[in-house]
Amino acid sequence: MVWDMTTMKEIAQQTGVSVSTVSLVMNHRDEGRVKAEVASRVRETARKLGYKVNPMARSLRTNSTRILGFISDEVATTPYAGGMILGAQTAASRFGYMLITVSTDDGMKEDNEIDALKRYGTDGFLYAKMSNRITDVPAKLLDYPLVLTDATDVNGKVPSVEPDEFSIAYDATTYLIKAGCKRIAYVGCSEPLLAQEGRLAGYRAAIAEAGMPFDDKLVANVVNNGPALRAVSRLFDSEHPDGFFCFNDARAWYVYECAARRGLTVGKDISVVGVDNHRVFAETLEPQLTTVELPHFEMGYWAATKLISMIENRPMNDIEWPKTTAPLTPIDAPIPAKIHCTLLEKGSVAR
Amino acid sequence: MVWDMTTMKEIAQQTGVSVSTVSLVMNHRDEGRVKAEVASRVRETARKLGYKVNPMARSLRTNSTRILGFISDEVATTPYAGGMILGAQTAASRFGYMLITVSTDDGMKEDNEIDALKRYGTDGFLYAKMSNRITDVPAKLLDYPLVLTDATDVNGKVPSVEPDEFSIAYDATTYLIKAGCKRIAYVGCSEPLLAQEGRLAGYRAAIAEAGMPFDDKLVANVVNNGPALRAVSRLFDSEHPDGFFCFNDARAWYVYECAARRGLTVGKDISVVGVDNHRVFAETLEPQLTTVELPHFEMGYWAATKLISMIENRPMNDIEWPKTTAPLTPIDAPIPAKIHCTLLEKGSVAR
DNA sequence: CTGAAAGCGCTAACAA
DNA sequence: TTGTTAGCGCTTTCAG
User: Fold this and answer.
1) Which residues of B touch A249 (CB under 8 A)?
2) For chain A, give me the number of helices (H) and strands (E)?
3) Which of A5, A98, A262, A277 to mutate to probe the B interface, most B CBs <10 Å?
4) Å between B323 CA and C14 C1'?
5) Scanning every residue of chain A, which has its alpha carbon at the shortest distance from the alpha carbon of B329?
6) CA A335, A339, A341 angle in degrees (round to 5)?
7) What is the set of domains in chain B, with CATH numbers?
């Protein structure tokens, strides 16, 4: 600590009271225990001296540091982590907490990092994945307050915050229908992600609700690279869709590539709604692509808020929803849907 | 703290020595002060009991927490922060430090966050930008050990770690030349970024070294969206380049789009080397695009290492370079160049 | 070589 | 209503 902080002792001396009195006042536990006049004198000197509590010293007594541990994989390999971290940090900061972020992508051994975090007195953990997966939570975490973020506990015990995948696709598809599309393709992901299930269901529901037939020839679940591009090419040539729901940026790119090769213009000849962070498209395109943004910020925010409510053992009722992060770029209005984010309270955890 | 850690007291009791002796041993300050036999007995019980020092308690005495503060903007809006955070965390963890990450993009007031970090006893700061800019460092940071990451101090006083932009473009261009390209375009950025200067210089140097004339009609500095796309279109039609150096993913996308519209295939009819994280292209394309990856991980790693060396006041000589994060996807070999990263030691800082 | 004692800044039980 | 005391886990003189 380079900077010298003023201590309670100093306040006590300046005010002519004891340290315990100062402690009571600074912790707002003075109601009916310290004379109001004394209390306000204490507060005044504290203000004058710019007193800030020393969390380290406090934690030595209270076993509570107001530090949250944020554990995630892939922070370096996906662009999503940032939003989640920012959301979590925003909530943390709002309640006077700090976030220690550790990621386990590299050589970092997860258990070691967890141990280190525990040594630093972390009050609870956020365990994040970069896309919703059934997750086997590390045992080392289970005896702490814990919230999963964009992940689902394999045992359904640990509370989690997840995106509402169904609504994402439902809203996007409805948007395409309202735009007048008649043959709407679903360009999805053939890996077994939770998002894939939910979104395909949302797509089907929207189609059905509009009285349109479901045609599985319009569904192309692909992985990547050449095979994906060829699958989307076939979709273009045999089905001639006029609307595309795309699982993410990468899938949307196949559609763009195929359209360009056929002299079709997105936003004129075909319509595309893509899910995701739309970073590349936001920078490259005229606003032709309608995007549903995944609520990473919100998930982080809510997960942290939930975690704090567990740590402090108090309800979250009065906590308002944060304003959503603004889209990077103006988007072809109207935006397909409000961004949903489901907060699942599946149970609580041993303390 | 939920978990009960074993304390020095317990070790002392079990071993039948005093706490001070244990402290001496656990801190490797026992040389010539504690009998070797006793020391090893202490170490043995410590091992048996799984002793880990309590950093909070220690910091109360030592004023050193082994916590590093990582401050950056835009963690949520760029995909780069993750790599830098991971690099910094990897280095930190290697030396027994922890990273507290705060980002200042949202409503977070930077000075408040810095104060909070200081209260938590942060030993020093990493101040990061998401692309190298001349940076006016917050005054609140100047009395602490401090390293800039992907940023340059406006006063040239604060040490910084930056990417070697010149070499990036030099290597990429040389790669295109060796591949047989005769008319190599530079698709750059018209915003005044440090990267732009350095890379254009690297491009020119490579061109010159190959005895090729520099033709500024081959240089297209663009911003984004429609105007950018049209500028690249003009470049295609009037200059017919056969090789492209692209400032980043977004610029590379314009080249792809234009190529597709003209029936040209990247990797066959034209060659492209793009700088950046190539996340989208890695997932979407066959390996046609050669990529120079920006050393975000390395910058984070080195900046943290440098910072620790400042905090502990010891040289960095014996510290080896980390293995670079693996590319997401196999890349058209040979990779254009090793990734350079310059470590600038511009001076030291008041403690 | 080793241990007793003091104290880092704070909180909490208890006396006064 | 307030102060005294003890102690969180650790480091650091200072005696022995």
Assistant:
1) 280
2) 12, 13
3) A98
4) 59
5) A225
6) 170
7) 5-62 (1.10.260.40), 67-162+296-339 (3.40.50.2300), 165-294 (3.40.50.2300)
Contact between B252 and B280 under an 8 Å Cβ cutoff? The reply is no
Coil, strand, or helix at residue B70?
A: strand
Which nucleotide shows the minimum CA-to-C1' distance to residue B21? Answer: C2
Query: 3-state DSSP call for residue A74?
Result: coil
Q: Tell whether A78 lies on the interface with B, counting CB pairs under 8 A.
A: yes
CB atoms within 10 A of CB B49: 15
**Helical H runs in B122-164?**
none
Contacts of A53 in chain B (CB under 8 A): 119
DSSP-based helix, strand, coil % in chain A, nearest 5: 40, 15, 40
Residues with CB under 7 A from strand D: A 16-21, 24, 32-35, 38-39, 60-61; B 5, 7-9, 19-20, 23-24, 26-27, 29, 53-54, 57-58, 60-62
pLDDT tens digits, chain A, 351 residues: what are they? 555 678 999 899 889 998 889 998 888 888 888 888 888 898 999 988 888 888 888 888 888 889 999 999 887 777 788 889 998 998 888 888 999 989 887 666 889 889 989 989 899 999 999 888 889 999 999 999 999 999 888 998 898 888 888 888 888 888 888 888 899 999 998 887 888 988 999 999 999 999 999 999 999 999 887 889 999 999 999 999 999 999 987 888 889 889 988 988 877 788 888 887 555 555 565 555 677 778 888 888 888 888 888 888 776 554 444 444 333 222 222 222 233 433 333 322 221
Shortest Cα distance from B239 to chain A (angstroms)? 21
Pairing type for strands A152-153 and A67-72 reads unpaired
What pTM, to 2 d.p., does this model score?
A: 0.85
B257 in contact with A, Cβ within 8 Å: yes
Name chain A contacts of B285, Cβ cutoff 8 Å. Answer: 225
- Within 8 A of B91 by CB-CB distance, chain A residues are none
Residues 6+ apart with CB under 8 A from B29: none
The minimum CA-CA distance between A144 and chain B, rounded to whole Å, is 7
What is the 3-state composition of chain B as percent helix, strand, coil, each rounded to the nearest 5?
Answer: 40, 15, 40
Structure tokens at A69: 């541990």
